[in-house]
Design brief:
single chain, alpha+beta, five-stranded mixed sheet, three-stranded antiparallel sheet, 3 helices, globular
Length: 137
């Protein structure tokens, strides 16, 4: 059996590849992982959560982003495209490319195969959102 060595990329290499790519991928501590295309149900669920949270936080200090916004989680060395991201205050972006740099207050990812479990976790996490000094992933 032949063992193939996995290549690890720097964050800079990932960003270069991502800018030229025809599809989205995520970066997790040196590994680049292609993202699967979304389904209609996935899009509806993400869009509905984005819309509800955006309206709910309209007069507050929160900003809501959809899955088009790439997020850098420095502590974990992850570039990701969450389905919905909520931050506190004004967004802070990278100087070179449009990447959100803040630690999110709420980060939602949906897995339709685990929809019941996901909804239960989301309901719990939405409740936690209003507790001080909580960051939720």
């Amino acid at each position: 059996m032949q063992i193939t060595q996995q290549r690890y990329y720097t964050p800079e290499e990932y960003l270069e590849l991502e800018e030229a790519a025809d599809y989205k991928s995520e970066y997790i501590d040196g590994q680049i992982i292609s993202m699967a295309g979304g389904t209609a149900n996935h899009n509806l669920i993400g869009g509905n959560f984005y819309a509800v949270l955006n309206i709910a936080f309209r007069q507050q200090e929160y900003e809501v982003f959809n899955s088009d916004m790439r997020l850098w989680i420095h502590q974990k060395r992850i570039y990701t495209y969450p389905d919905v991201t909520v931050i506190v205050g004004e967004p802070e972006f990278s100087k070179t490319v449009q990447i959100l740099l803040q630690i999110p207050k709420l980060l939602l990812r949906f897995c339709l195969n685990l929809l019941k479990t996901t909804i239960a976790k989301i309901n719990f996490r939405l409740t936690e959102l209003f507790l001080p000094s909580k960051n939720i992933y």
